[in-house]
């Protein structure tokens, strides 16, 4: 269970927190219906997992204390706990979020930061949620945990100009030795079976080694690599990569997570407290 929390919970809950399209309202947990394709089924959300774990936590809360704790609060708490269980920082989570009733795949596809994004684009998307450049470089540090499927980064390994459209030039912002290793795992652009660690060597531990990888041009996604192409984010990457400011990163991460968890929350009479996280009441 501990391992499950540290990896699976983190992804769904962190990206779900990040995804706050209608606000931090657990809309990403809603299932599609006959007349609506939900966020969950938007292409960028296809790799989200761990939904059943969220439902299990919610079911226990409902049994103990019906109608009190929203799915949005459950996700926010699970994000924090996943980080703590992976040896990361603790931060207080203010509660009282309510759950949204709307979930739109179209909106998710339009508003989620693409892996191919450069800093100006990512910063713009973050800014639209009230998050600044520092939040971007700090929260990207969450990629110290977890794994990714090949289609999320294989375009950096194969540019489609080689034989059979498969082999070609590698993204020059990616360390070539590292690219060789990644190609051994991801045999093609659309290999959906293999998983690669985003922070090789310590992908289950919340630490600062993500920044050392990025500083050495070993960030897995273009969005990670992009942090070296902006003076502010580059400075931060290089500072934390020294390993001398781990405490500073932990404090920054806590602050940015609190900020992200507060964006557009529903309170008071807005929304509802869902009974099950996958469907509105
Ligand atoms: C800056 C924009 C971001 C982009 C473009 C991005 C993109 C991605 C992608 C493509 C994956 C891998 C999906 C897969 O192939 O399975 C991933 C994984 C992950 N992301 Fe992000 N992400 C971003 C920001 C964040 C933020 C802000 C957080 C949390 C604070 C976060 C936490 C995670 C975690 C924990 C995983 C690992 C998932 C697992 O092990 O299944 N990411 N991200």
From TrEMBL:
E.C. designation(s): 1.11.1.7
Primary localisation category: secreted
Co-factor binding comment: Binds 1 heme b (iron(II)-protoporphyrin IX) group per subunit. Binds 2 calcium ions per subunit.
Residues given in the record as Ca(2+) 1 binding sites: 23, 25, 27, 39
Binding annotation for heme b: 143
Keyword Membrane: no
Disulfide bonds: 71-277, 150-186
A molecular function (GO) term: metal ion binding
Superkingdom classification of source: Eukaryota
GO biological process: hydrogen peroxide catabolic process; response to oxidative stress
Localization, UniProt: Secreted
Residues binding Ca(2+) 2, per UniProt: 144, 199, 207
Gene3D superfamilies: 1.10.520.10, Peroxidase, domain 2
A GO CC annotation given for this chain: extracellular region
UniProt binding sites for substrate: 113
Record field: catalytic activity: 2 a phenolic donor + H2O2 = 2 a phenolic radical donor + 2 H2O
Requisite cofactors: heme b; Ca(2+)
Domain Plant heme peroxidase family profile: 1-281
Keywords assigned by UniProt, alphabetized: Calcium, Disulfide bond, Glycoprotein, Heme, Hydrogen peroxide, Iron, Metal-binding, Oxidoreductase, Peroxidase, Pyrrolidone carboxylic acid, Secreted
Family of the protein in this entry: Belongs to the peroxidase family. Classical plant (class III) peroxidase subfamily.
Function: Removal of H(2)O(2), oxidation of toxic reductants, biosynthesis and degradation of lignin, suberization, auxin catabolism, response to environmental stresses such as wounding, pathogen attack and oxidative stress. These functions might be dependent on each isozyme/isoform in each plant tissue.
Entry protein name: Peroxidase
């Amino acid at each position: 269970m501990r391992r499950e929390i540290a990896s699976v919970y983190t992804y769904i809950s962190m990206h779900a927190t990040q995804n706050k399209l209608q606000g931090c309202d657990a809309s990403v947990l809603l299932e599609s219906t006959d007349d609506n394709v939900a966020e969950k089924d938007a292409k960028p959300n296809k790799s989200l997992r761990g939904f059943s774990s969220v439902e299990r936590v919610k079911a226990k809360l409902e049994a103990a204390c019906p109608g009190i704790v929203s799915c949005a609060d459950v996700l926010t708490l699970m994000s924090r706990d996943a980080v703590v269980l992976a040896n990361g920082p603790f931060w207080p989570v203010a509660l009282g979020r309510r759950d949204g009733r709307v979930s739109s795949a179209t909106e998710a596809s339009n508003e989620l930061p693409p892996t191919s994004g450069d800093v100006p684009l990512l910063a713009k998307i973050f800014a639209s949620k009230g998050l600044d450049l520092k939040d971007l470089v700090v929260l990207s540090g969450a990629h110290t945990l977890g794994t990714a499927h090949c289609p999320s980064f294989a375009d950096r390994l194969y540019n489609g100009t080689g034989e059979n459209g498969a082999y070609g030039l590698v993204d020059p912002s990616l360390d070539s030795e590292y690219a060789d290793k990644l190609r051994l795992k991801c045999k093609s652009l659309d290999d959906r079976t293999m998983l690669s660690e985003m922070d090789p060597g310590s992908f289950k531990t919340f630490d600062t080694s993500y920044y050392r990888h990025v500083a050495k041009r070993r960030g897995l996604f273009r969005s990670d690599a992009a942090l070296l192409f902006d003076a502010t984010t580059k400075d931060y990457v290089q500072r934390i990569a020294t390993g001398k400011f781990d405490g500073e990163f932990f404090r920054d991460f806590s602050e940015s997570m609190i900020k992200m968890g507060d964006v557009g929350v529903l309170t008071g009479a807005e929304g509802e407290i869902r009974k099950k996280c996958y469907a509105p009441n």
